[in-house]
Specification:
Elements: E1 2-6, E2 17-24, E3 27-33, E4 38-45, E5 51-61, E6 68-74, E7 79-83, E8 86-87, E9 99-100, H1 118-122, H2 126-142, H3 147-162, H4 167-171, E10 181-184, E11 200-202, E12 213-216, H5 218-223, E13 225-229, E14 232-235, H6 236-245, H7 261-266, E15 271-272, E16 275-276, H8 277-303
Parallel strand pairs: 1-15, 5-9
Antiparallel strand pairs: 1-6, 2-3, 3-4, 4-5, 6-7, 7-8, 10-12, 11-13, 13-14, 15-16
Length: 305
């Protein structure tokens, strides 16, 4: 299965376009759009099958200035597709029906970043320097396209949020700054039923706009469910644990919880814009974390100016 996001400049397209393409298991899956507004999933399998199949789905209508989430799944016996959270009917079964697609708002919520001068670091304590340098490293890794850098991000998040005690608590022990994690108020979203073959849900935590923000404390944040796969929920803490202990952020192939073995296998099954959804979720967690810890970083830097 693969997920991707698309923001059309013009819909329907003037000519046939390839919206997404992924190579997996010796084959290639592509999603194409056509001038009449319908979509197709093309599956090309290599040795030993050497086959090509086309699966055309109903016409859709996409509003401009919005982002559409697509998902498609394929097996030997079935190919399914969804757009905007709605399962698409086969083109020949749609009877000319055009589906209006729900769009995702273009993000208007401000992102966080941190940069600290060497002079301030020189005047800071050892614990404060570790905290500030870790936040700056998180800032850098969040913009990286390197899988290695994203995997290593898990080690920073584990140390900052999940260690015993977490680094952020050590640094905040005497300052007692109230740290709140701003997340998308996902309980306000209307759940859309999915076909059994598209039974994976990824809840993005970083808000798209100021209108859908709620705040939680660290303990609540680590328990928030961000991925559901085949009926199993995985929390923020689970995602950090799997990437840190199975993908190589800290260790390689050393999961601490049997519950997370399915999430480890899931890395090779579900992709968002060509990147493992598990790593996409980790980046989402990193963005929320960075913004939550910036007020503490500001207090530390101001005290050492």
């Amino acid at each position: 299965m693969s997920y991707f996001e698309f923001m059309p400049q013009q819909w329907p397209p003037v000519t046939k376009n390839t919206l997404h393409r992924i190579e997996r298991d010796g084959g290639v899956a592509s999603v194409l759009s056509f001038p009449d507004g319908h979509l197709a999933v093309i599956i090309e399998r290599g040795e030993p099958n050497n086959s090509r199949s086309e699966h055309h789905f109903q016409r859709i209508n996409i509003q401009h200035a919005g982002i559409v989430k697509f998902a498609y799944s394929w097996s030997e016996s079935r190919v399914s597709a969804a757009a905007g959270g709605t399962i698409l009917a086969k083109l020949e079964e749609s009877e000319g029906c055009v589906l209006d697609i729900k769009i995702k708002e273009i993000a208007s919520y401000p992102t966080g970043q941190l940069s600290v001068s060497p002079e301030i670091l020189e005047r800071s304590s050892r614990e404060d320097v570790l905290f500030l340098e870790t936040l700056m490293d998180i800032t850098s890794k969040l913009t990286s396209e390197s899988r290695y850098e994203l995997v290593r991000l898990s080690a920073l998040l584990r140390q900052m949020l999940c260690d015993t005690p977490p680094l952020v608590q050590e640094v905040n022990r005497y300052r007692k700054v109230t740290l709140l994690f701003e997340v998308d108020d996902i309980h306000n979203l209307i759940p859309i039923p999915e076909h059994e073959s598209l039974r994976t849900d990824w809840r993005t935590l970083y808000p798209d706009s100021q209108n859908r923000v709620k705040t939680v404390k660290l303990e609540q944040f680590l328990k928030l469910v961000t991925i559901t796969h085949e009926g199993v929920d995985f929390s923020v803490g689970d995602v950090i644990d799997v990437v840190a202990h199975a993908f190589g952020g800290v260790h390689h192939g050393k999961l601490r919880k049997n519950h997370n073995k399915k999430l480890d296998a899931f890395e090779k099954e579900i992709f968002l814009n060509g990147t493992s959804m598990v790593l996409c979720s980790l980046v989402d967690i990193g963005r929320v974390t960075l913004k939550a810890l910036l007020p503490l970083a500001v207090i530390i830097t101001q005290a050492n100016e």
